[in-house]
Amino acid sequence: MVPFFKRKKQSNKGKRQERDSSGSSKNSAEEKDFIGSSLAANVDKIRQKTGYSSDLVIRLINIGPQSEIKIAVLYVKGMVDSQSINDFLIEQIMKNKALQEKIMPNEALDIITEEAVALGGVKSVQDWEELFTVLMAGNTILLIDGINKALSASTQGGARRSVQESTTNVSVRGSKEAFTESIETNTAMVRRIINNPNLWTESMKIGKMTKTEVSIMYINGIAKNEIVEEVRKRLKRINIDGILESGYIEQLIEDQTLTTFPTVHHTERPDCVAGNLLEGRIAILVNGTPFVLLVPALFIDFFQSVEDYYERFDISTALRFLRTVTFLISLIAPAVYIAATTFHQEMIPTQLAIIIAAQRESVPFPAFVEALIMEVTFEILREAGIRMPKAIGSTVSIVGALVIGQAAVQAGIVSPAMVIIVSMTAIASFATPSYAVAISARLVRFVFMISAATFGFYGIILAFIMLTVHLCSLRSFGVPYMSPLAPFIPGEAGDTILRKPIWAYSKRPHLISGENKVSEGKHQKPGPPGPRNMTNHYTEKGE
Amino acid sequence: MNKLNRKAMFLFFIMISTVFISGCWSQKELNELAIISAMAIDKNEDGKYVKTIQFVNPGNVAGGLQGGGGGQGPAVTVYTATGDTILEAHINASAKVSRRLYHAHANLLVISEEVAREEGIDGIIDAFERDPEVRTESKIVIARDAKAGDIVKSLTSIDKVPSEKVNKTLLVTERARGENIVVSIQDFISVSASLGREPVISGFRIKGEPEKGKKMENVQQSELDATLEASGLAVFKEEKLIDWYEGDLAKGTMWILDKIQQTDVKVSWKGKKNAVVYNVIRQKTNVSADTKNTYPEMTIHVRAEGDIRELTTPVDITDPAVISDLEKEIEKEIKKQLEKAVTRTQKNNSDIFGFGEVVHRTDPEKWKKMKRDWDDEYFPYVNVNVKVDAFIRRTGLRTNSFHSNTEK
């Protein structure tokens, strides 16, 4: 058996090497293809390359006294702000006095670049690949006959969703705005919160076809350099057709893929991103999605909401406890019910045991099958409810409530106690702030149910130990997933299930943040003014 | 393409097979269990044990449920089986019950007076202690003037399950009256195993006609034909029942055992009997031993606190002198109860008060010599001093009674 496995490993290694070498050879094969100087040829090539797409607008302008200089303005309809193209580009070129004189095409280029175009972000482009990338991103390209360069002006615009209230990370208190699909807006929203030059962003294009803009954002000095480097490396490694959502990136940069637990956090809220950046985390913004990724993500992060820090610490601590309990309920409530009613009836108080027994008298299935029926029914209802058109949604909930609530009980197929357990589990799973962890709990719940049905409480404990071991083995960008609980970091345990008062946060999480660890000055605890200030004032008056 | 690590797959299959091969080992659904609520042990004419098992009918107990039809039938069903041993009787019972007999919720064991008197109950208790499913916190009572089986066969109202009713009654009366004691199987075992102490167990009797108690009509009327009531303390000597204590005797015993939580003490005042009723709300009883002489000398010190709760004649209780006189009367009355219990118990040669244990604690060396024949040789001749301190703390919502004004 052993030699067999060895052989297997070797062959795997061989394959990996092969793949690496093929990748490097491809990179070296890439050669730059430069723009030619004939305008007609260039325009032709562009039209041909874009397949004569109808949304590509090519506007030809002639300038100079005898209209001898030909200029082509190219842009993609809908992706540009046509107002600014008309007002600041075409009009300016046509009306420019210097361009009306007799000049050479070279001079024309300079004049256009330096004087005529009243737009920011003007740069020259020399190779075709860059030209297409820039053009397809919503910029306007200017080609002049006789010059082997193109000019790009940033005119991105068109209809986009405006900044709206967050729908997935709702909070009672705190900023209401949420990210949009536009990466520029998103970056700006974070910058508006952290007005500091140390907030650095790095941009790159990922996706062979989509060329999606992806930015890394971190605070220089607070973020750990090794982690920033690791993020950079993992992002650069990505070589796929398209990035349609940050979920693609998430799945391609995870440390461990064989787990149901998320090791990358995502959020829709700029204040959440800002808070995490201040702790030394790194944000990954992806164009086209309002969900921003945050790494490294720890298990405990998924039980925290931004609002925890906006409320006072006693209330937040109580709420965090509640969330931990609800997570446990959503994980093991049906399993405990199954184990208690099929293996450990002696552990149920007599009165309750009699009530449950009475309810189960007419139920034809074992508790496990009963629980499975109810859980699966509920999952079906939930799934049906999410993707239903809103008009039909209410029908689903009515039918669902009747089916699992009443009819099933009246028909004697399930017991009322089971309905209570399943609904409690469902509500508990909604109380977990992070949808990502709630989903994994949904999945793991079935494992717990099976082990409870086979081994009772013993099985639950067994599954729980396995779960704990698994969670402890996970890492997010090299940071232990269960920290600061395992490994236990005493100073930071105050921001886990507990939430210590804001004035007690003197240090940043030490596994995540870089050199700059001090987040607060000393003596931040507020208090009443000293007795001297108060009493002297009054006694002096009195005397 | 075969990237799957075979070793991991192999391990996975081994783990999965532990789940499927073991199946649902020792799995038992709640509705496949016959939940036993009480058991009773009698003996028939052939000298065989008769085990009466009371099962809960869940559907009839949990009233108001859909499909349960709560309250239609009796809350419990009773089956009887015989055997030479307890276990045999138990196994024989399975021939009559369609479900698996489940002991874990049984909380009452009734033993008939006849069995307790004639052969003792230690042999019976062993079977219950040994069974992993039986709870040793189950309470024991002795069926007085009745068959143990009849006690568990009687239907009760309010608490529909008779075993619940017996248990709760015992608990309440121990607290409020102090003439009965709650004894569980493990309490009995620990006392019975001790050389310096003998057990007492509460008695239960059927007031009314046992035959009518088995019918549903019994619980469909305001006054039941057959009621279960706590009655007296059964005194044991060498595992056998030898005496019943009641009233003052039982109370005195409970005082010495430091089990009184609340009770009433009636006192005469100026020649009128039962003039003042004192309600004990707190007490502490200490028993100490002096082992200088051959026969140890025991001192029982009672410190009781309570309220005046009833005045049948006008007494000026606003006068501190009267209060201290009353306290003295109360002390005398309590002392009388204690002494009565001591005298009777010494006559029975059965140390239910645990004096032997006190001697053991005080003088372990001397106890070694005495322990073998403590009950017969030493305990009856022990000199017992009773010291009572009683305090009147409050007089209820009134000071003097309203009828002390009308007297004048």
UniProtKB/TrEMBL annotation, chain A:
Main location as per UniProt: membrane
Concerning PANTHER family, the annotation shows: LEUCINE ZIPPER PROTEIN 4, SPORE GERMINATION PROTEIN
One GO BP on record is:
spore germination
Family listed:
Belongs to the GerABKA family.
A UniProt-annotated Pfam family:
GerA
User: Where's it found, cell-wise?
Assistant: Cell membrane; Membrane
The family database entries (InterPro entries) matched by this protein are listed as: Spore_Ger, UPF0353/GerABKA_families
Q: Which UniProt keywords apply?
A: Membrane, Transmembrane, Transmembrane helix
Instruction: Provide the transmembrane region boundaries.
Output: 282-300, 320-340, 391-411, 417-439, 446-467
Source organism per entry reads Domibacillus iocasae
Name any GO cellular component annotation: plasma membrane
Name assigned to this protein: Spore gernimation protein KB
Keyword presence, Cell wall biogenesis/degradation: no
Biased composition regions of type Basic residues, renumbered to the chain: 1-14
Species lineage: Bacteria, Bacillati, Bacillota, Bacilli, Bacillales
Q: Where is this region: Disordered?
A: 1-30, 514-543
What is the recorded membrane topology of this protein?
A: Multi-pass membrane protein
